Records
---
Amino acid sequence: METNDELNKRIATLSQSIEQAYRANQSMEKALTECSEKLAQTRSQLIKVTNSKILFKLEKKWTTFWSFVSVFLDPGESSTSLREKFFMFFKTMWSWARNGFKLEEEQVALRRFEICKGCPELKTPDNQCKLCGCMMEKKTKLAGASCPLKKW
Ligand code: SF4
């Protein structure tokens, strides 16, 4: 049989243990809260980074697309109307399709491009032909394409 003193001691020890467990639980809760806050911050940073990457890619694509379209639409020093340019563009595409969308051999494309480089109708630095509005670095590679002045 335990005496009152012993029982009191036991109760005191038990309440100490309960208090320690309570404190440990509190600090664990604090650590968990901090952890989840940090996770939320990291998540929002990740979202920001991902969004900005996507936006950057979209912006880059749009800039490339727009620079191509604006160069094509820009009458500049061109003596050809937009209607004629579109007609020549579709003619080139049609001809390329009839040739099975093949690309010319590198030597042929290079020879064509060399002719364009010596032509006064070539606009630099875009390497765009003022007559057909095409980018000659690309057009010279297409099978079935031709020069509007029949230089190649
Ligand atoms: S396609 Fe013909 S007209 Fe146009 S730049 Fe080349 S050579 Fe000149």
---
Amino acid sequence: MPRVDRPGGGAGHTAQGEVRATCWTAAQDHPVPDDVARLLATGPEWFGQPDSNAEYIEAAQTKETWTVRDDGGSVVGVTLVDRHFPHVAEIHLTVVDRAAHGSGAGTAMLAAIEADAVRRGVRLLEVKTLGPSHPDSGYARTRHFYEKWGFLPLEETDLWGEATPCLIMVKPLAPAPSC
Ligand SMILES: CC(C)(COP(=O)(O)OP(=O)(O)OC[C@H]1O[C@@H](n2cnc3c(N)ncnc32)[C@H](O)[C@@H]1OP(=O)(O)O)[C@@H](O)C(=O)NCCC(=O)NCCS
């Protein structure tokens, strides 16, 4: 399975339950729906709709799964990937344990998925998230996270209904160098 290591040290839990890390390794993994359920529950500000959560947990049973695990093997972050066409990979869900937000786990998963995508000849990464016309401050940070990794806003749509503006973001990928 592909692995991407980030420079730095190891990962572990502090006495307060926060996860400290300067290095996460993200890799493709087997489905982990129980871990997805656990991680969604740590972030009710982002995942407060039981119906949506149930859909994510069901999707996690079959969709391509990438994880970050801590030194003890516990899942700290999960990303599910859709492949609509050979040239595109969509981030269907990405979630990091609330205690590990901001420690690089989300970036490690995007980096691993992108490196794998380039190897496969994928030309576009896609993600859908809550759009900027909604005032939610948590999702403003989520959009910043994607923009920092190079995603560009493409279009805000009412795909999810008028009360839930959907921002489609894409990141063009350079073709893998040929030798
Ligand atoms: C969005 C998410 C996957 C990012 O993963 P992460 O491991 O927390 O983020 P990283 O440490 O790799 O990256 C840090 C960057 O992301 C930003 N960020 C976005 N959301 C954040 C959050 N909830 N907590 C901390 N940093 C966050 C930080 O501001 C930082 O950028 P900066 O250094 O310019 O300030 C994770 O915070 C999360 O699960 N959030 C809630 C669920 C969510 O939004 N999922 C995506 C739905 S489309």
---
Amino acid sequence: MAQWSRRIAVDEFRLLGGEPTIHPNLAAFVPLVRKHWPAALIRIVTNGFFLHRHGDLPSMLAASGNADIALSIHHNGSEYLKRLQPVFDLLAAWRRDHGTIANVWQSHENWTRRYNGSGAAMLPFEDGNPRQSWEICPARHCKQLHDGKLWKCGPLAYLGLQKAKYDLSEKWDPYLQYQPLDVNCSEQELDAFLAVEEESACSMCAAKSHPFSLPVPLRQATASGEADLDNVAVPDRVVLAAPVDSQRKTDVLQNKQTISRHLDAPYVSIVVVNRDYAEYVGKTITSIRAQSYSHFECIVVDNASTDDSHAVIQGQYRRRSQVFGRQAR
Ligand code: SF4
């Protein structure tokens, strides 16, 4: 982090896994990230089940400021939600005592496959349309800091671990050749890394979405336990009882880079105004994003369009963008 903090600015730094709460010193990462990126939103994405092991976490989050917890819901079955109730209770106590902010992400609604199959039998999709694979990819702006290097995305960063664990087919060899960015890279290499969208490695991912549901990810489900399930809170009641500050579906697409090159140059705000130009507004936004200068924000103001403008804009910028719209009267 120390070395990269001199090279890149970070809007949002997520601590995730696997499951980050398995790490015994999770809380210590919060001030560490804050030290290196003072303005970043620090977000711990967790399934919540081991949060109780981290009694120092809420005070660390409070001391850090601009830090929160995203409780990722992996299943909406009543058994699963029943097991989450102690997590909600814990978060309620943390909010009361420390002001901890927690959000519920309905992650299970948006699971899609990155690899075709699992374990030793998994294969790259190779649908022959890496651009389309990238367009629908939820990981497309989730750069990973792994082994001291910057990776395009999690699936590439951790493919080597899959290889170490399973005897993967040679079909994966081209993707295992992917070269992450070293911290001693040139400015040009860093710019190129941040600017590139699809690349050949994206061929390993599907060009159309492959949703799937996880089985209930709990280890113990006894017959008597299941008999009790009729009496547990239904999902909405559990969620409504959650001590969370907001609830949202997990965004399918993250539409903005969360990192950029550190620049002494100014941060530029580009304002796009639109009314009934659905045909052009998407191209305009794409053009802005394609430029080499990366230290900017794009604000789209839609003035009561009655055509498809809003859908086009939201389609490209569903998250982490500022879209101001008003309804036609
Ligand atoms: S390789 Fe490309 S399409 Fe696949 S997960 Fe990474 S960014 Fe997404």
